[in-house]
Structures are given as C-alpha cells and as structure tokens.
Amino acid sequence: MNPFESKRVLLGVTGSIACYKAVDLASKLTQLGIKVDVVLSDAATKFVAPLTFQSVTGRRAYTDQDLWGPEGHVLHVGLSKDADLIVIAPVTANTLAKLANGQADNLITLAALAGTVPLLLAPAMDGGMYDHPATQQNLRSLTERGAHIVGPVSGHLASGLSGQGRMTEPSELVGHIRCLLGAKGPLAGRKVVVTAGGTQEAIDPVRVIANRSSGKQGYALAQAAIDLGAGVTLVSAPTALTAPFGVNLVAITSAEEMLDATLQATKGADALLMAAAVADFRVTNSSQKKIKRAGGVPDLELETNPDILQAVTNASRPKVIVGFAAESDDLLKNAAHKLESKNLDLIVANDIRAVDAGFEVDTNRVTLIDRSGSKEELALMSKEDVARIVLERVVKLLR
Ligand code: PMT
Fold this sequence. Notes:
Largest sheet: 8 strands, mixed
CATH superfamily of the largest domain: CoaB-like
Number of domains: 2
Structural class: alpha/beta
Radius of gyration: 25 Å
Strand order of the largest sheet: 13-12-9-14-17-18-20-21
Distance between the termini: 17 Å
Shape: elongated
Number of strands: 22
CATH architecture of the largest domain: 3-Layer(aba) Sandwich
Bound molecules: ligand PMT
CATH class of the largest domain: Alpha Beta
C-alpha cells in the first residue's frame, strides 16, 4: 500500500553546519517508509556522528573508513546501484566542484559517479562561495547533466552574514524527493484533478458563508497522486495548508470559481477526485459594502449553486470520477444515491458524526462504494492512508 516501502534513497552528507538538518531529512524520509542509506564525508563527521543517522534511519551509516574496509571494493557501486535516488544534502561548494568535474575521491563522490539514478543536490555554503563564478559554473554543468538542484535559499548564514546559501528546509526537500521517487509510478503520464477545502460565498466584503472543511483530505489525495507519478492540478478553496510540491495549484474562493477552474482543469484529464465541500447555496443580494449592525438583521436571499460534478460529467468527462459524500444520516443510502445520480465511478462515504472523522481532524473513517454497489468499509486511519487507498482504486479503474 505504501509506495515508498520499496524505495531506497542514498543520502550523502557533506561538511556544512547544515548537516544537522540532514538528520531531520533522514528521519522524515524514514518515517515515510523509505530505506535511507547515509554516507558521510570526513568533514560531515566533524559536525554530526554516523550514530545520529543510524539512530534515525535504523540502518548502518557509512563513512570513508568503510571505503577501505573489507567490502570497500564494491561498496560505492552497491550503494548507488541499490538506490532509486541519490540525494546529497547538504552539498558543499567543494563537493559540487568534484561532482561537476567527475572527481571521485571519497565514498559519496564515488557513489555519485557510479550512479545512474536521478541526483538531487541541496547546496549549503556561504553567500560569497555560492556567488563565485566557479560555483555558478559547476551548478550550470550539473543542471545540464540532469541533476536536480534545490536551493540554496536566502537568510541568515553561519558566517553571521545574510545571503543566499542556506540549505532548503528538509520538509521542502521531502516534497521534491517524493516527486522524483513517484515519477515512474503507476499514474505516470496521467492527469489527475483534485478539489479540496470548503468554498466561501460572500455576504459582504467581510463575511462569508463557509463550511468546516480544512482541505486536509483533498491535499492528502493530491500528495498521494503525486507519489504515484500523476500530473496533479489541485483546485483549492482557502485553507491554511501548503500545497504538496509538484502540484499545479489553482486557488479559488466561491463555488462558481471552483466550477470554472474544475471545468478548465478536467479538459483531457484522466481522473477527477472531488473532495471539496462545495457550498450548495450562494447569496444573491450580497453587498459590496460592509453591512452595518445598526441597519438591523439583513434579509439574505439564497440561490442554488451549480453542481460541479454534474457539470463536469456533461462537459469533458474524465475516465474516472470519484465523489465524496459527507453525511450525518443514512450514510450509505445517501452516498449510494449520489454515486448513481452524479454518475460517479466511486464514492467515498464520510460519516461526519464521528469526532475522529470528516471535517478538520487528521483521521477519517470512510466506506468506498463503487458502481457495482460493492462496499469496502475502512477502519479509522489517517487521511494520508485514506488517500492512498482511494488512489489505488483510481489506478485500477484507469487500467
Ligand atoms: O477538508 P477536510 O477537513 O479534510 O474534510 C474532508 C471532507 C469531509 C470535506 C471530505 O472528506 C468530504 O467528504 N468532502 C465532500 C463533502 C461534501 O460536500 O459532500 P456532499 O455530499 O455535499 O457532496 C457530494 C459530492 O458532490 C462531493 O464530491 C462534492 O464535492 C460534490 N458537489 C457538491 C456540491 C456542488 N454544488 N457540486 C459538487 O460537485
């Protein structure tokens, strides 16, 4: 079920104060289920011990001592051959120069030279070193050869100066790594559209009719689709969340805007996953000016919003459409009715009465119902796990 359980990342760590961030990166990748083999340069071991990495990855961490150990003659080849991706984070100006020139004088540069898998480099150095024409030339050469360079970013540097040289934060690097690891997944070449969050209907410039959707389930679906290699457009109502790296984010506010954006995005799409909680009604007499309390209770007139799923079905229907049903009563009956009336391939029935499922929380408890009427009741699980299972269904439906 977890697409990362079969994945292996070779993480090279070279001598920069940003080594402490590499520990967090190794930990985050391990928590995703990825097997992380860490190789430290001599200089890196001055900043952080191999044991630190071993403790977070649960696997042996290698140093240049191992290069000359009993397995030394094949270690660099073995490490890079077994990897799906080589990441060097932090990569110093010195290691960049070696990589750009095909120099291989330690275990990391040997493995990188021997490797045929994608290479992601996260530079970290002082601003002056980064700006130096030699470093810039090295970065250009490596980019031309297909290396993925992420960062560095601007901010406070260890020298006490400010400038471009800080290693990209581990959480952001994880986004890039997920994208690269998923690239050849079962949805590679597929176009998936996800809607997320609760739409908002204006009453006046200050007030809106909104709902409790946080966008968590929709964003988890977008990430799960990226993890399987899909090209993802995320049509999102306002949320506090950061969009997964690699998605094409289309930010909207109202149901009408979501309709337009979804119709546009689904042209030529393979699948639509409609997790958004769309306002069924909008205010017809919304005010351009703030409504004053002194004027008394306003008379708000409502009209029905368009049904987005219906509109997509009537326009350029993607091969697979997954709807969601947030219900407080007669969950399965109502969800089955929506599956039928909205001509869906799959519906995710969400019991919103449970405190640990539905809106806002990190977990969900859903039942999947397909066109044949067959039902799969899932136990309480994280919204990420629900998303993975839904995407597995999408993969099967697209076959
Ligand atoms: O965002 P979270 O806090 O993580 O919460 C997740 C969720 C509870 C919002 C999500 O899991 C969910 O159930 N989303 C659908 C909520 C909903 O509004 O369901 P509905 O029964 O009103 O609509 C049924 C389907 O029709 C949905 O796929 C909905 O997106 C779609 N719809 C609804 C109204 C409308 N005008 N057009 C639509 O296309």
